[in-house]
Amino acid sequence: MKFEILASCPTTRARVARMTLNHGPTLLPTFMPVATQAALKGLTPQQTEALGVTLILNNTYHLNLRPGIKILDQAGGAHKFQGWRRNLLTDSGGFQLVSLSQFTQITEEGALFSSPYDGKPTMLTPEESIAIQHSIGADIIMQLDDVVSSLTTGPRVEEAMWRSIRWLDRCIKYHESKGRQDTQELFAIVQGGLDPKLREICVREMINRKENVGGYAVGGLSGGEAKDVFWKMISICAEKLPVDRPRYAMGIGFAEGTKLLDLLVCVALGIDMADCVFPTRTARFGVALTFRGPLNLRLKHHTTSLDTIEEDCPCPTCSSGTSRAILHHLVTVETAGAHALTQHNVVFQARLMGGAREAIFAGTFPAYLRSFFANYFGETGYPKWCVDALRSVGVDLLEGIPPAEVKVVDGQGMKWEYSES
Amino acid sequence: MLSFRPHTNTIPEVFGPRRGLISFVRSESNDCIKLETPGLLVSTSRGVVPHLSRDNLRRTNVIRWINVPFESFLERQPPLPTTLPLQPLLGFDPSRHIIALSLRDPNDLRPIPPNGDGHVSAMCIRGVQRVSPSSYKTYVRDSKPDVVFALTDTCLSAPPHSQKRMTKSIDRSCDWLRNLLSSSTGAERSRNIFVNLAGGGSAGARRAFAARLVEPLEPKDLVDLHPLQSLDEGISGYSSDLASLRASVLLSSHDELSGLIKDSLGSLSNAKARIATGSRSPHECLRLIRDVGFDLFDAQWAVNAAHWGVALDFRFPVPSRLRDRESLDIGHNLYSEGYAEDFRSFIHPTEDVISLEESRCRCSACSPSFESDILNHSPSLDLSASHDTTAQPFTRAYLHHLLQTHEMSAHALLMMHNLTVADDFFAGVRSVLEAGPGNFNDEIALFEKVYDESMMVMATAKEAWGTVDKERGKGRLAREQQKAAKNDQQPVVQTESTPQ
Ligand SMILES: [Zn+2]
Ligand SMILES: [Zn+2]
To answer: Which chain regions cross the lipid bilayer (chain B) (predicted)?
Structure first.
């Protein structure tokens, strides 16, 4: 892997980098669309690539169930299986195991669960997770970590952190024993719950293994925690992690609607990549993302609008003149309606990140943040946690706004076209 | 302006196989769209070719003629295409696509209240809507299709239909056509009109309707329809909706079906284009070309196959390596576990050598290519795009996976493929016709022997589709279920006896 920092924001911790992996370059910061089952909802790899996407995520847990390792091996890996020629990242499969399996028990050996095939007790060890990810063949693979809910407190959190470190060592050992370190980059996952001390210890331990890992992920933040705590954990980790390795905020913010902010705030805090099911998932429900907030195209007031979703959007949907009215006619009824929105939403997020890269490169990232937030939240008010998080890295979102017009709101920062208005 | 020119050396007296050329010249741009016949037309659902996003529609260059049923737009007033014409509204390409408008989807046989003297009952999500001939004329004027199907009084109630009912049906259909042709109601006369051959399952009624088309106009109509001398002079071609025809009468053989159509066409000009919607199999298309002489087919079987996970794999004429085989499936039910480890593309002869007559399928699933022009979201940062556009064909194993995991892209890929196979099938028909009608009859007989017409493969795939849909499709788009219900009324397992 080649990781070159092209520019750093003089104010925040954001940076622009070119990460060159086995399947070519990816510019950071970026978001990764999630192709859980080796397919990005409704789109072919040709369509996905044309949108300007260079890195997608496959889920190990799902691919291991279907099509299974035997078939992936025959196909020559997941790239060939799905016809994707750019970069690919897989998770360890552990998180989904814990959240989707009915019975999971963590032992030092690995995660014990009942097989979805026959219900028999089955063990996912760190070695096994890496072996599966070797068959899948993604450019970036993740260590197996001991996942605990971000709401867990007490000694279990520390136990999970230390175990994750021990499991990282086993993953590294197995990975290198198979000679895969030149074609697949192993990322470590920082754990430690919501305890800043544990996070710092974990980061320190993992930095000790820097020569054996390609990059770092911040794990264990899955949406249950308060936004205030969330950004502080990201910040602590991003600040301490080595500059010359990519940083990945994993599975952040499952609560829909906050995803965009999470992503942009994380970039300011020094994160380079994040995965995101939001654009593809919301598309199926008729939601289009725009720089002025999400549009729910199922609502009646779109029935007569001949406007495209967003005027200057280069996506295949907007650039071919697809009106909101015809999307209203199609969404949730015809699959082609979902495809049109998926294409737009993926491009929207790619533009958001592309714009961030341009701004960081040009030294205007703080202004980019201010204008994004002003457009997106101008009417509803700025989420307080975003204001605080960005203030911590030297950006005052409220700068230049007359005090009388400043509106800051508590909570998640949802902005949603909920109902008829 | 739409024109149809049968190739003079092939045009039979009235009935029989023929080749021809449909050309459409767009006066605004001088774009000329050409369509060799017999050929393929593609139908839309709610204004889109099922499963195809606009970029995939563009990638599927076998799509030339697009039928748009208007009825789904009736759920809003004014209907959307009257605010913005069909072409820009639906994103079709004026230089490549001929857009044909009908009120109803001819393959939708769900029960619906009967038509009245002054209206046709149409179906949309909000239920049944009545459309008067004059509103239809306004819809046509404002939505600006290239081709219009005139309103027809089709009886969708269970047969038999009384003679009185049939007479009324013919009267109405003629009145509605006259209304569409008339220039006195303020609206300009519609051009490029196709008329559905009315009369249902009654030979007499069908002959009577045809006679009404060609009989001289009554004096009062001569003014209204000036300069036309008959209704027939104002129309470009005839259409036969096989689905509703089958529903209106119990047919025991293909000969009965083609006989009824011949009853209509016998007294009509053989120089006008003939469209058949609702054909059930490629076999039926071949016989209709042989016995009647049709020029365009909607090939709904190719679309259904894509819904149900079948990748079509057949050719006409039958390739030499298959000529001694029997009852082969016309495609692959990719739900079947047998394809889980099959890394071949959809069409792939079992022998290693692909003969010259079988070059690789040119569809975007079997011969995909990456775009050379991709979006770059941070242009100042040079991310050199790959100029290599070569992509590997999608495999049966991958499609099997997509179908089993309920991924929508399966259906998009299958649509692009199946429409291409259907288009190649008609290209094969044309090439055999070029060699002479004798060959054609032999080749049809061979095709009927080699490929299973009962299409069990479709029925089995549909069952698997239903199972996976139930298990995994919690969020499945409701419309697909509706479609399945709709398709249930056109059983794929054929009940007619197959001629030898
Ligand atoms: Zn767009
Ligand atoms: Zn193909």
So the answer is: none
- Nearest Cα neighbor of B258 from B299, B218, B294, B234 is B294
Q: Taking CB atoms and an 8 Å cutoff, what residues of chain A touch B341?
A: 70-71, 74
Residue B261 shares a structural domain with residue B322: no
Residue B37 contacts residue B20 (beta carbons within 8 Å): yes
- What are the residues whose beta carbons fall under 8 Å from the beta carbon of A117, sequence distance 6 or more? none
**Residues with Cβ within 8 Å of residue B63, at least 6 apart in sequence:** B42, B49, B57, B96, B97, B419
Residue A388 catalytic? no
Q: Are residues B288 and B315 in the same domain?
A: no
Considering the domain architecture, whether residues B263 and B361 belong to the same structural domain is answered as: no
Q: Which among B42, B70, B401 is the top mutation candidate for probing chain A, defined by the most A β-carbons within 10 Å of its own β-carbon?
A: B401
What string of pLDDT tens digits covers the 500 residues of chain B? 899 998 876 667 789 999 999 999 998 888 999 999 999 999 999 999 999 999 999 999 999 999 999 999 999 999 999 999 999 999 999 999 999 999 999 999 999 999 999 999 999 999 999 999 999 999 999 999 999 999 999 887 777 788 898 999 999 999 999 999 987 554 566 689 999 999 999 999 999 999 999 999 999 999 989 899 999 999 999 999 999 999 888 888 999 999 999 999 999 999 999 999 999 999 999 999 999 999 999 999 999 999 999 999 999 999 998 999 999 999 999 999 999 999 999 997 655 445 555 678 999 999 999 999 999 999 999 766 667 999 999 999 999 999 999 999 999 999 999 999 999 999 999 999 998 878 999 999 999 999 999 999 999 999 999 998 887 754 444 444 444 444 433 322 222 233 33
**Which residue from A18, A83, A335 is facing B51, i.e. has the nearest CB?**
A335
In this structure, the answer to whether residues B135 and B28 fall within a common structural domain is yes
The structural domain count of chain A equals 1
Distance B346 CA to ligand 1 centre (A): 33
Q: Are strands B120-124 and B127-131 parallel, antiparallel or unpaired?
A: antiparallel
With contact defined as beta carbons under 8 Å apart, do B44 and B464 qualify?
no
- Which residues of A are annotated binding-site positions for Zn(2+)? 313, 315, 318, 344
Say what the ipTM of the complex is: 0.96
Distance CA A32, CA B490 (A): 43
Where is A111: in which H helix or E strand?
strand A111-114
Find residue B229's DSSP bridge partners.
Answer: none
| Min Cα–Cα distance to chain A from B222, Å | 41
CATH of the domain at A291: 3.20.20.105
Q: How far is the CA of A316 from the centre of ligand 1 (A)?
A: 7
Contacts of B245 (CB under 8 A, 6+ apart): B200, B201, B257, B260, B261, B278
> In this structure, is residue B330 part of a structural domain?
yes
Q: Which of B254, B261, B278 is nearest to B498 (CA)?
A: B254
B226 & B288 share domain: yes
Structural domain of residue A73, as residue ranges? 1-421
Q: For residue A275, indicate whether it is catalytic.
A: yes
Beta-carbon separation of A80 and B392 below 8 A:
yes
Total domains, chain B: 2
Residue given tokens 């404002």 in the structure block = B142
Going across the sheet that includes A15-21, the strands are A2-8, A15-21, A24-28
